[in-house]
Amino acid sequence: MMDRVPTELERVAAMLKEEPVVEFAPRREPVAPSGWIRQNLFSGWFSGILTILVGAVVGYLGFGLLKWAFLTADWTVIKANLRLYMVGRFPPDELWRVWACVYLVTALAGLSWGVTRKRLAWTVRKAATRGALAVLALASLAYLLDGVRIWVLVGAVVVIYAAAVMAGRLGARRLHIPVIVGWVLAFPLIILLLRGFGGVPPERWGGFLLNVVVAVVGIVLSFPIGIVLALGRRSSLPVIRVSCIGIIEFVRGAPLYTWLLFGLFVLPFLLPAGVVLPNIVRAMIVVTVFSSAYVAEIVRGGLQGVHLGQYEAARAIGLSTTKMMAFIVLPQALRSTIPAMISHFISLFKDTSLLAVIGFIEALRIARIAPQGQFSGDLRETLIFAGLLFWMVAFAMSRWSQRLERRLGVGER
After folding, report:
1. What integer pLDDT is reported at residue 244 of this predicted model?
2. Which of 22, 79, 188, 259 is least surrounded by Cβ atoms within 10 Å, i.e. has the fewest?
3. What is the pLDDT of residue 144?
4. pLDDT for residue 106
């Protein structure tokens, strides 16, 4: 009797029985520092020559920069004008309002970190980096700050943050909603602290405080307005769709500087009789409208990335158009637009330096006028310091964006 020829299914089953199933993915063996250098920097003669040349150029420029920063540069202009940098012409006897806003944001940030119950990962490299940054920060503060009072105020920031983190960890289950509500109400409370109860009029706001306030106004208000414009652009009603397209394209067709001039000189003629808005309010309106047009295009790109099957599935289970957009489509679209959205908000924050060219005394303008009198010729130091202020906020926003992307798994699934 002839042997039966095994079928394809039987052959596959026999192969699976013979070969053991891999339960875990193979792990990449750790590479020693010398091995990493050899693989990435000196893998060949061309790579080695290029590494040596680039290292020589970077070393030469870095040595020159460090020599200028620590031996030649005169940073006394920064120390003498630090308050002007931070708050401009804000009255000194009203600075408690600014510190109250700082403490409010610090407490919310500490609670937000505490309720997550996450802990910092400590490796040798991270510990060395954080230690170096801490030493640099303390050395900078020791040089810039004079007096016991200012040190107590700055130290209170650290104490409040640490206490808020501990409180957040202890009441993590009960504080999620209060923390969200706190962030929602933070901006109105900050405006109330600065302006309310006989506070300081917006005309007296200046320095880095002005940059931050205008940027926050533009970011907070332009986000919902941009979503509405993006949805309106995809509307089936021709009037709404054409109106939203017209607004978006018209606003995006001119630079922000042009619109700031429009808000300063033309907008007053378009307001009803008897309505007078301060210059800073008009600038905030212009920044918000300008940002909304770009947010709308970013959201529109996210909406186009949602698969049509999501729309069909939502309609199949009987969801209305509003519920479909709110619970199915928009969450997916906004999740995919996080990198582009944060990049736009960082750009918007840096663009607040354009306020200087229409007369506002913000951080960049102060950097240009501070080296006058006894500090003549120190423009490089002041501009570098202003650049560092903008960089720190932009870098913090970028890091927060990366953490949010990792948490939501953007680009992973």
Report:
1. 92
2. 22
3. 87
4. 92
Stretches where the chain sits below pLDDT 50 are 1, 21
Residue 78 contacts by C-beta under 8 Å, 6 or more apart in sequence? Answer: 85, 144, 381, 382, 385
| pLDDT of amino acid 349 | 93
To which H or E segment does residue 46 belong?
A: helix 45-67
Please tell me the predicted confidence (pLDDT) of residue 1.
47
Q: Is 186 exposed, middle or buried (0-12, 13-18, 19+ CB in 10 A)?
A: middle
CA distance 263 to 20: 72
Distance of CA 204 to CAs 45, 52, 88, 105, Å? 62, 53, 8, 22
CA distances from 22 to 9, 30, 216, 247, 404 (A): 21, 21, 52, 58, 33
What are the sequence ranges of the domains in the chain?
A: 91-199, 200-413
Please answer whether residues 168 and 112 qualify as being in contact, where contact means their C-beta atoms are separated by less than 8 angstroms.
Answer: yes
**Partner residues linked to 207 by β-bridges:** 362
Q: pLDDT value at position 299?
A: 92
| pTM, entire model | 0.83
Q: CATH number of the domain at 200-413, please?
A: 1.10.3720.10
Judge whether 244 and 232 are in contact, CB under 8 Å. yes
Phi, psi of 362 (to 5 degrees): -100, -170
Give residue 169's pLDDT: 86
The closest of 219, 240, 241 to 290, measured between CA atoms, is 219
Contacts of 388 (CB under 8 A, 6+ apart): none
Q: Cα–Cα distances in Å, from 82 out to 20, 175, 225, 366, 413?
A: 68, 37, 36, 10, 47
